[in-house]
Amino acid sequence: MLGAMRRPPSRCAWPLLAALAACAAPPADLVLRGGRIRTQDPSRPLAQALAARDGVLLAVGSDADVAALIGPRTRVVELDGRTALPGLFDAHLHLAGLAEGVRRVDLVGSASEAEVVARVAERAAQAPQGAWVLGRGWDQNDWARAEFPTHAALSGAVPDRPVALWRVDGHALLANAAALELAGIGMDTPDPPGGRILRDAQGRPSGVLVDLATALVEAHVPPLSGAELRAALPRVVADLHRHGITAVTEAGVPLATAREYAALARAGSLELRVHVMLDADDPAVWTDTPGLPTPDLDGRGRVSLRAVKAYADGALGSRGAALLAPYADDPGQSGLLLTPPERLRALTERCLRAGWQLGTHAIGDRANRLVLDTYAAALAAVPPLQRAVPDPRLRIEHAQVLDAQDIPRFGQLGVVASVQALHQSSDCSWAGERLGPARERGAYAWRALVDTGALLCGGSDAPVELPDPLLAFHAFVARPDPSGRWPGGWHPEQALTRAEALSAMTTWAAQACFEEGRLGRLAPGLAADVVVLSDDPLGAPVERLPGLRVDLTVFDGRVVHQRAAAP
Prior knowledge:
alpha/beta; Urease, subunit C, domain 1; Diaminopimelate Epimerase, Chain A, domain 1; 3 domains; globular; disordered N terminus
């Protein structure tokens, strides 16, 4: 008799026991049911419903599986056949940069230098006497005359106060005469290492500063205060929720900003998971040592501090990207290296020993090779037993232009390729002229990276691009060309499959941040971060992909965005 009592229940009894256990459990806070849930969980790729309590998923399965978890106070969302996914993860953006946009003139989409000057003059007329006027977003490649501007028109329109206008990529700025004078930039000012002061035929500064030369003016610009950051972030985060984003990698900020994020999260004022990369050029990173990596800086699972961001080169649009051969459209230039190789090597080894993840900005093929060479040497010098984290998941941010022989090295070295799909659609109308036809084939080479074993994660680089992962999804799979010159897509052989594109902004992005045990999938015990779309990104016809909309965003088990119904 005792032996019979100890036998496990028969298999047919398990559903009854599961139902009884569900009845005994406290009700869920939130239930989503009646839809197509793409879980990104290999053990159960598709489900109909999910339930969450206290920010954690309780059940993911059929409508019947969650029925017993519905209580009188449970919020029930009827999906009505719509598609739910894990909350989307922007693997590379600038959160503080988006907050900075509140005080800057928006120059995105300006069709000419004259339009830039007009927008700035309008803001200057409203600004306090003597205050800086700041702006960002101009791109000379979008103008009929695709040449860098000069300060002449800007200085004429705004002569009485300093003006600094960053290019869309942040790697160049246009300063007026007052700002140049304040920074002490004149004919005799030499180009700083890693930077370039553009000049006219007489050798006078034109007003455009490239890469590290921008610091000459930036040193005089009042920084965004903590109060300004706190005031701007709710609007920024709400916009990210509108795009279905629940987690981001903040690609390079001072330690003070990371601590500000943590304070906001502890106060319940940051509805976002922020994986911070500390700016390697911030002295506080190494002098006011942040200590060991802190995956939970705020104690609520919202701010992670375990990565450092360095810069190898500049940007392709301002010809600061470091190339192995000169630019096809400017044979006198091969780009700029911003961090000396020996300093990058020392930083990499230090990060490996201390447990910090390192991500290095590299756009050009020369910069990417330099970083891969540096990583390979550092990994050999600091073998796994000497590393604080045996699998360090070193990253290259952008990996934009690659020589064919370097592409397999990402997978071989275990280096994460952190790419931005919208850069391809923004740049393809002029990238070929910059690079030439042979080198162009190694640009935005996502298919080749994945096929050779690289872990690839997708971000926006906002505010350089819109933080819109659905537009990025379309770019990943269709390689669109807004100019219409390549109707079938720009180098479509480098497109990702839809499943890969979705992974790049969910599971692979989480893995790139050591978060695969909590984010990027929908399964019991994981974070209840969910996005509901108007259509199925894996099943909708390709022509319908640009029309996908975010209907609902759930963060930490609570609805934080709901799209208004059409009238």
